[in-house]
Design brief:
Layout lengths: L3 H10 L5 H8 L5 H8 L10 E4 L9 H18 L4 E6 L5 H14 L3 E5 L5 H10 L4 E5 L8 E7 L8 H12 L12 H7 L2 E4 L1 H12 L12 E4 L6 H10 L5 E3 L21 H13 L4 E5 L6 E7 L2 E5 L1 H18 L8 E5 L5 H9 L2 E5 L3 H13 L6 E6 L3 E3 L9 H16 L5 H12 L2 E9 L2 H15 L2 H6 L3 E6 L4 E3 L4 E3 L8 E5 L4 E6 L5 E9 L1 H15 L1
Helix pairs in contact: 1-3, 4-5, 4-7, 6-9, 9-10, 10-15, 12-13
Length: 559
Amino acid sequence: MRDYYSIYQEWLNSSLLSKEEKDELLLIKDDDNKIKDRFYRDLEFGTGGLRGVIEVGTNRMNRFIIRRATQGLANFLNKRQKGASVAIAYDSRNHSDEFAKETASTLASNGIKVYLFSELMPTPSLSFATRYYKCQAGVVVTASHNPKIYNGYKVYGPDGCQCTDALAGAILNEILALDMFNDVKVGNYDELVKKGDIIIIGQDCFDAYMNSTLKQSIYQEEKTLNVIYTPLNGAGRRCVTTILEKDGFKNVKLVKEQEMPDGNFPTCPYPNPEIHEALKLGIDNLLRENADILVATDPDSDRCGVVVNDNGNARILTGNEVGILLFDAVYHAKKEQGKLPNNPVLVKTIVSSDMASIMAKDFNVRVIDVLTGFKYIGEQILFLEEKNAQNDYLLGFEESCGYLTNTDVRDKDAVNAVMLVCEVANHLKKQGLTLLDRLNALYKKYGDFKTLLLTFEFPGVEGMQRIKDLMAKFRSEDIKKEIKGIDHIGDYKEGYIHYSDRKEATNLPKSDVVKFFLNDHSTITIRPSGTEPKLKIYFFANGQNRIDELKELFNSFIK
């Protein structure tokens, strides 16, 4: 195995690097730690594709990493099917359009037909386009809600779902067999477009995506809701404003500072619609205009954040709360309209609020719990489709602001979610109520269930080891003695739920997750992030006092 410094020298001496790229590497020539961090490994390709800091190096996002990953994807496809095709989309991040063209050029140079969006578009539109054009794969260039220094590259299968473990593993094997500089076919983008090897996606796909989304409408009534919308300088503006207009919403105002695409995200360094910092300008607009609701989408417009105007006070709804509200509304609307299937299904992740399961029992709706990652929700739609039962699917949601009712898309879809959230808020407004009023009514009926997410960041090489050590700690016998009232424990890496007298298989793919189930029905779920150097701990409990108690306990474990 070659050392990181020799790889650094190889890159520095490569004739394929531009002067600017070589100058960037020369700036760190005397800093061994920085050289090591950039070159000690290859950026890892997994079910989430690639994600990393935009810099030159093997452990970074740059055009050479994109080309190599794409060559691996091309080799995988060409070995399995002649005449394969791939759809490509990209968001507003720095270099996203450049990386999308690099992807298109490499694929087309390998004889693969490419459908490339002519402008930045939401991630869910890529899922839709992959199915619309009957492609064998899809690629979207995005780092979702990460800070501006990041970009990423996600691969989708022919079903429009992010690649599963098996597919990602097969593509990774192809990537690992390639030399970064010598084994990649690189063509001229403009010439490939002229030849027709790269097809620029036209209005027809956009219109089809909008029409498919509009079919998810649950309330066909006059829209009087006053809406503030922010795309957070991302890719959502065109699709979200179009769908709201088509659905009859006339009172929609955008946050001007965050309206247009800008990969530097100048007003929200961490463009995540779950957090107050990103929503601050939108909240200012919400209260100044005395509007009813603020909706926000992240840079690739697959996540939807929601803020309610509660008599002049801004109340940010959690992803779990929005999921509960949408489940309640979709179920009752379909039931009242005679559209409820005989065997309705809700799909949610194991870290999402179990209040949805309590409601589902009352609704007589089957719940399917899946691992974290919307690909597992999309996969369940495929399983239903294979049984000709896709109409049984009501909603899929995850606590990180991801929602979907549209089975034409197989990833979380903020365009779909924004339309539904606004429809539900509008329907309640006609009754003199808000989303918060309905949420409180649900808490009163089913229990005051609270959720909380703690996130701990551990950057760099040492950080990766720290996360591994902490996961081992949470699997140890010592930690189990310190957590009082454990009923049973789920170890999803091992694949079993452990009870005092037996163990049962999870029947889920293996994943580095530990979940403690306590006697008072509280749960604590711990997992490393799949895309960032972070450890995440999810709490579910009845009442804020119990949440605070569990938070204090687990904070002490991390210190």
